[in-house]
Design brief:
heterodimer; A: 112 residues; mainly alpha; 4 helices; B: alpha+beta; Ubiquitin-like (UB roll); Fumarate Reductase Iron-sulfur Protein, Chain B, domain 2; 2 domains; 5-stranded mixed β-sheet; 10 helices
Amino acid sequence: MKSHRNHPLWFAFALHRASGLLLALFLPAHFWVLSYALNDAAALDGFLEWTDYTVVKIAEFGLVFLLAVHMFGGLRLMALEWLPWSPHQKTYAAGAVAASFCLSTLFFLSAV
Amino acid sequence: MTDLPPDTAPLRVSVWRGAKAGAFETFDVPMQESQTVLDLVAWIQQNADPTLAYRYACRVGMCGSCAMMVNGVPRWTCRTHVSKVMRGGTVQVAPLRNLPVIKDLAVDMDPFFDKWTEAGGAFFPTKSRADAVEPILPETPARQEADAAIECINCAVCYAACDVVSANPDYLGPAALNRAWSLVNDVKDGALDARLTAVSGAGGCHNCHSQQGCVAHCPNELNPTASIAGLKRATVRAALRGKS
């Protein structure tokens, strides 16, 4: 059954909301681990060693993905609500952001 | 419409029967060329069950009275071709979401139009018949905003598509707020401050989550989300000026 939610604009909303909730769940754990930098450096090093595991690397990828999705989703929402642009202007702006993001990512990949 | 060859299999049409409580009833409807979903419903009422309740008037996409849920999506049924929505020889037709069902496919539109009034949808003139006619320049930004919002036919498709209306029954909804935005941009109207107060209350424009279901499903391709965003900006500016 095709639903009234089955369109890209609703998926963009859902992705922004889900990424925000998941990041909100992650942040307390993030600050808790960071607190070891002040109180217990050995414990922090113990945590950082986990980053050698493949599963943790995949989780880090997921985290960066959530951050990127939430940031661009937020920029989209702010443009939608605060800039009285025409639909064509929004398409051109989204295309320009996507192209610049691709170019900067290519530059970053060749730099590392 | 012309009949298809006699060996063409009939369409299986599931239609909601009852009010809030009820069930889908299935009818076999002969397929025809250029058949609309409203044609299916009319055929059932005229040939299979005369007690089927539904609402329509113009049949040409102007009056906004025949909107229904077709396969879970709100649509104007008089302009929706069966060939575009049929899936595996079946179509499901249900009453519009977010409105009380009177009977079968007919919903009570009172909450929809009450909110239209609550949002300041009535025009308040600033001149009498003795005054000169106000010159309206089509190229001014305010007039272009008003023109972009003014073609609403009040079919309630956007209202049925809106998840915020489902979650918050007090939310004024996309059509009422779109109407308010067209009047905010009308230089002939004299109730700007009262209207901005009306649309910035508990059920007002700031409830909108910009899910844009209204934009995706509006049969006239209007953009109520842009209208609501305009109201958000206007109400914030008014609040900063101490007006609402």
